Recover the amino acids of this structure.
């Protein structure tokens, strides 16, 4: 039996390492295996190096590294299947939840937006990344890999952009534009160049490219440009400000009439109170959507505008929600104290408790307050006139 | 006759698991020698197939390992984990079923010589 020395061990281990085996476990396994064979088969006075070289060649076709490569292949293959399972499951899950969310939304059932957000979230953060990672793994050619990544980014951006848009989170529009830009100027050229070269993929490449361009075009025709959007908001703000001016004029006229009359007006103090309550809430909304304390001529004249934000966003704070409920109650009480035609019409406004609150927008809510305030003033003037 | 590597490939994991079940604790070289003796040299596991499979089985949680120093070198002993014992039973049953099916499919006359 041959006696293996420490020098022999170092020699073999170095040879294994130099042959590209990096995993320490595999190094040790091979080393032990080789030593066992040598100890058992080589005669006591045998030539170590020559014998080692002959048995070494039975371990591989080119080099030891094949064993490590095979090991890595087996290990990644295992991950591959697990990833594929998760991908399929998350895909089915997100599609189901998203569809349910949309159906609920149409039926105005609760839980709709939770379903949509969760579905799109799983789609954007689990399904799509896994899908593209697996695709990248499947391809060996680096150009194909780049193409998949260039497709993955707009796909994820598009899904996130829709999610952000419906949630009224910031940067939704920017992500939408980025999607189109990446798709048209990065993905499309790469896709076209790689596909048009080969006879068998040529026609499909051209057709898909046309569909991408037309699709982006259709999308862009539906999009309101930022400039138009701003112009619309400025116009809407000017509109609100005109209503505000009418209200102030009415208020002034009422004050003048009151001064000329010595009558003790009924409902005056109650009306004054509700008017002021409405004023406070209105100013809060103006502050939230326009960043100013009150709507004035300077603001409206300088192309400033009130942001078209949802009332729900403002009501996110518990304090604001309580304030709104208090105001609704006050308006209801006020209306109950009036008779017949004196009552103020608040149907479908955000102050109507039966209204669908999540479709309310702040500029509309401000207009509604101004209209209600104007009606209160007009009732007063009517009352004075009759007297 | 030594069997072709295609035939061995699909059964290698089953062979390893069953050997470890019968022998509790083995190292790589021992496994190849045991297989050689048990099959009278008809099945010769190559190192290039054995070690990747051992690593994969370990990563699957079917095997547990312990290392021992033999002088300057490290020897890694493999044994079945709890999950590995269950898997061994399933794999052996599956293979025995497969053999029966193949006997029928290929119309093999079994020679009990």
């Amino acid at each position: 039996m041959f006696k293996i020395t420490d020098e022999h061990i170092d020699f073999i281990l170095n040879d294994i390492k130099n042959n590209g085996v990096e995993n320490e476990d595999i190094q040790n396994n091979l080393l032990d295996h080789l030593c066992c064979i040598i100890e058992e088969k080589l005669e006591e006075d045998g030539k170590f190096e020559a014998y080692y070289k002959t048995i070494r060649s039975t371990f591989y076709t080119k080099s030891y590294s094949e064993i490590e490569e095979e090991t890595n292949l087996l290990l990644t293959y295992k991950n591959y299947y697990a990833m594929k399972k998760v991908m399929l499951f998350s895909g089915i899950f997100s599609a189901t939840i998203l569809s349910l969310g949309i159906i609920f939304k149409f039926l105005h059932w609760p839980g709709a937006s939770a379903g949509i957000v969760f579905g799109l979230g799983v789609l954007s953060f689990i399904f799509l990344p896994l899908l593209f990672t697996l695709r990248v793994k499947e391809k060996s050619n680096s150009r194909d890999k780049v193409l998949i990544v260039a497709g993955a980014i707009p796909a994820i951006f598009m899904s996130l952009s829709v999610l952000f848009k419906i949630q009224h989170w910031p940067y939704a529009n920017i992500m939408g534009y980025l999607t189109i830009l990446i798709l048209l100027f990065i993905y499309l050229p790469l896709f076209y160049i790689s596909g048009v070269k080969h006879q068998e993929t040529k026609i499909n490449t051209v057709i898909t490219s046309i569909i991408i361009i037309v699709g982006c075009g259709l999308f862009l025709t539906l999009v309101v440009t930022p400039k138009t959007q701003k112009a619309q908001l400025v116009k809407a703000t000017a509109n609100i400000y005109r209503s505000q001016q009418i209200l102030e004029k009415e208020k002034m006229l009422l004050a003048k009439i009151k001064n000329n009359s010595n009558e003790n007006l009924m409902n005056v103090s109650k009306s004054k109170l509700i008017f002021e309550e409405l004023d406070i809430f209105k100013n809060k909304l103006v502050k939230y959507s326009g960043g100013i304390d009150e709507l004035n001529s300077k603001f409206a004249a300088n192309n400033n505008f009130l942001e078209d934000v949802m009332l729900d966003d403002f009501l996110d704070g518990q304090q604001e929600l309580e304030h709104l409920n208090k105001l609704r109650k006050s308006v209801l009480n006020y209306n109950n104290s009036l008779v017949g035609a004196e009552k103020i019409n608040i149907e479908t406004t955000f102050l109507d408790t039966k209204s669908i609150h999540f479709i309310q927008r702040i500029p509309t809510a401000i207009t509604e307050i101004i209209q209600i305030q104007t009606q209160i003033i007009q009732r007063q003037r009517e009352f004075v006139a009759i007297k | 006759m030594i069997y072709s590597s295609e035939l061995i490939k699909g059964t290698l994991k089953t062979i390893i698991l069953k050997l470890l079940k019968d022998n509790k604790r083995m190292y790589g070289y021992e496994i190849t020698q045991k297989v050689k003796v048990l099959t009278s040299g008809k099945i010769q596991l190559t190192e290039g197939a054995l070690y990747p499979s051992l690593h994969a089985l370990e990563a699957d949680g079917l095997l547990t390992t312990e290392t021992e120093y033999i002088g300057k070198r490290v020897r890694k002993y493999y044994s079945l984990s709890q999950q590995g014992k269950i898997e061994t039973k399933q794999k052996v049953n599956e293979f025995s079923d497969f053999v029966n099916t193949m006997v029928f499919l290929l119309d093999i006359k079994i020679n009990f010589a």
